[in-house]
Amino acid sequence: MNLAVIGFILMFVLMFVLIKDKLSPPVAFILLPLIAAVAGGFGIEAISGFVKTGLNTMLSTAVLFIFSISYFTLMSNEGLFDPIIHFLIKRVGNNVTTVLFAVVITTFVAHLDGSGATTFLIVVPAFLPICKRLKVRPEALLGTMCGMYGVMNIVPWGGPTMRAASVIGIEVSDLYQFIMPSVAALAVIAFGIAFVIARIEIHNGAGADKDDTAADEKGAGEGTAKRKKLYWFNLGLTVLMLALLFVDIGLPLHLIFMIAFCIALTVNYPNTAEQTKQLKSYAASAMIMIMTLFSVGIFMGVIKDSGMVEAMAAAIVGILPAGVAPHMHWFMALFAVPLIMILGTDAFYYALMPIILGVVEQFGISPEVVAATFLLTATLGTPISPSVAAVYVGLGLADSTIGKHIKYSLRILWPASILLLVVSTLFGVIRF
């Protein structure tokens, strides 16, 4: 059977079972790609190679997840975030829209380093407690982040922009300058996404009443007093750790969290029996996500190394009518969000984009326009893609699943992407 057909069937079935909760993510990400590989005619040796490569790519992310989740859980239990909760409750009360606007602004700051994992690590622990108290669902918090995540994901030092610039052979700064009017529009759209999500959550019953607010304020004060002696140490350690995430000192993210967690655990729980008890309490919640991450590694290894991704990219181009050819980049952008979710970032820019370039250049469409089209419309699909490892860090912190995340956010982010396409066309950044 054709690899492209197998790949499309695999992605369709995978999305269906995840969104409909028909299979748990680890089961889906392991069994479905292995079945697809067998259907593609690959033998045991080849499939083993796919799996090995995929698992290796997920190793650092899995370690980062274990220690980051454990660290923030420890700090939450010790009352580190109680003053933040108290401050927000006091200032905004039950104003869900204001809280979500604050999430957008914080995401902007947190994503300045271009790292998706860092962004989730900073934003989710800070806002999840207040969201829970306002009855805002975790998926709403993650969905709100996606708009500004998309803005900051295409900064000049961001991975997608560097990929696109390398494909068309221009300086990253030149490409970013070319798309800046649309980036500004996307920033406005990010606040629009937050507003829409706030309306959805309020309609769903979000917003604390006065009694809830009073109780939360009291609880926040009690939480801080509970471990007042170590509060300033924990705060200083956390601030230092977050600063190191932004400053390149040569240490990988996961090692920074490993060191910080060991220090925090030792200081807060000097007794080894207490340390063991804490470690056991983190294990249950971490296990499912760790299994999911390594399962995603198997999935990515199979679809990339088997050639399925390249085959799907070529097939997508091949099915479009000949009359569409001069406008292929524009029509392709209508589906940029689901396409990057299906193909993954590397394949989207390194496999699909060169094909589109080759088609439209003969009709006078410049490489800069094609790159801009791909960057601007696909960026909102990255934070909901099942193939992006950083997304699972956010899911673990928010205690959600990839299926719930996609189901909640896709309906908002995909139309937002199309809106940006239209606006960018009107601005002249994108040509039809």
Give a structural overview.
The structure is a single chain. The chain is mostly helical and 432 residues long. The chain has 2 domains: 181 residues, no CATH class; 231 residues, no CATH class. The chain has 20 helices and no strands.
> What general outline do the C-alpha atoms trace?
globular
Portion of residues within helices: over 70%
How many structural domains can be distinguished in the coordinates? 2
Average pLDDT level: 84
Q: Which stretches are poorly predicted, pLDDT < 50 over at least 5 residues?
A: 214-226
- Count of alpha/pi helices: 20
Number of strands: 0
Q: Per DSSP, what share of the residues sits in E-state strands of 2 or more residues?
A: under 5%
Q: How far apart are the termini?
A: 36 Å
For the largest beta-sheet, the strand count, sense and barrel status come to: none
What structural category do the secondary elements indicate? mainly alpha
What series of H and E elements makes up the topology? Answer: HHHHHHHHHHHHHHHHHHHH
Backbone CA Rg: 22 Å
Annotate the secondary structure layout.
Layout: H1 3-19, H2 25-39, H3 44-77, H4 82-92, H5 96-110, H6 116-133, H7 138-152, H8 159-168, H9 172-203, H10 210-226, H11 228-246, H12 253-268, H13 272-305, H14 308-318, H15 328-333, H16 336-343, H17 345-360, H18 367-378, H19 389-398, H20 402-427
Helix pairs in contact: 1-2, 1-14, 1-20, 2-13, 3-12, 3-13, 3-19, 4-6, 4-10, 5-6, 5-7, 5-9, 6-7, 6-19, 7-9, 7-20, 8-17, 8-18, 9-18, 9-20, 11-12, 13-19, 14-17, 16-17, 17-18, 18-20
